[in-house]
Amino acid sequence: MNVDALDLLATSVLLINEQGDIEHANAASEDMFGRSRRQLLGQQAAMLFEQPEDLKGSISRAASGRFADVRQSASIFRPPASIEVSVTSVALSGQPWPVLIEIREIEQRLLADRNHRLVEEIETHRQLLRNLAHEVKNPLGGLRGAAQLLEAELPEASLTEYTQVIISEADRLQALVDRLIGPQRVPLHAKPVNVHEVCERVCALLQGEFKNEIVLVRDYDASMPDVPGDAARLMQAVLNVARNGAQELALQPARTGEAPAKTLTFRTRVARQVMLAHRQHRLAFELTIADNGPGVPDNIKDRLFHPLVTARPGGTGLGLSLAQDFVQQHGGIIEFDSRPGCTEFRIVLPLESQ
Ligand SMILES: Nc1ncnc2c1ncn2[C@@H]1O[C@H](COP(=O)(O)OP(=O)(O)O)[C@@H](O)[C@H]1O
Ligand SMILES: [Mg+2]
Prior knowledge:
Oligomer: single chain
Distance between the termini: 39 Å
Largest sheet: 5 strands, antiparallel
Helix content: 25-40%
Radius of gyration: 25 Å
Bound molecules: adenosine-5'-diphosphate, magnesium ion
Order of helices and strands: EEHHHEEEHHEHEEHEEHEE
């Protein structure tokens, strides 16, 4: 690793030795911590944060190589106030330093506001669509019934071709409308759910549907505790997100030679100090579903979780809106990040409150 190159980064990066001491600090970390590089070197990295114990834990876990990376939120006291940051501890292999930590400032309030706005916006849309769906549902039933009566009266059997079109289209619309009205808001009966089992069931379904077209990769945190939740709804949410990735990959031309295989990755991690729905949670569950497909089209990125937003031929645009709904019922959120070749959907659920 060329450590000088780290000075070109806008995020601050520290290289840490086995004892947790800072051996290298890039230029951006001088600004971040308000100290010169000389002051930073040789210090215990964890002591730079207001939660040294939490940080010590994740740095030593990364140093032991048990985890590829650990992301958590923390704060730094930079007079006159504390600033919220997101810290990622990365285990390095084959480098003189066992751990790299990256610190980014997060606009915590902005993030919470954005999530909150998103939730409200989606709820408004959903309500609107539900009302519309109810309006469509009743006349649809009448239409279908009338077509059936008409069919019985037709003088020529060949004419039923037309009534059949009416009936099957009415059925198709009916199914769409039912999905829009959505499952009744039955209260959530949370039980401990083993999320790896949920992921495995989703993988089995996708394997059946996509056969050898895509490679499924599991990167599970074996220490993950059970998540309180409704297994069926969580599974539907995971399936809706994962299936989109698989579908995008399957649409791509076959990759040959040097090109990386079409891969869908399921990664689970425990995250610390996560803000969800205006509440700070000590522990949260994070499932990242990543694919190396073409990415979410730019023109739908900011409305992706709204119902009926789709860029897929034959798509309904209901998958992600339902998934977001189910995850929000658990007090969590689905976020995403996408660029060509790397799309990540992250399902975050609260595990333990402060
Ligand atoms: N992993 C992904 N890669 C690229 N595009 C995606 C991905 N996931 C979702 N999308 C885009 O989001 C749209 C909405 O998804 P969704 O709500 O599940 O509806 P649908 O799958 O019926 O289109 C999709 O049509 C697709 O364009
Ligand atoms: Mg879908």
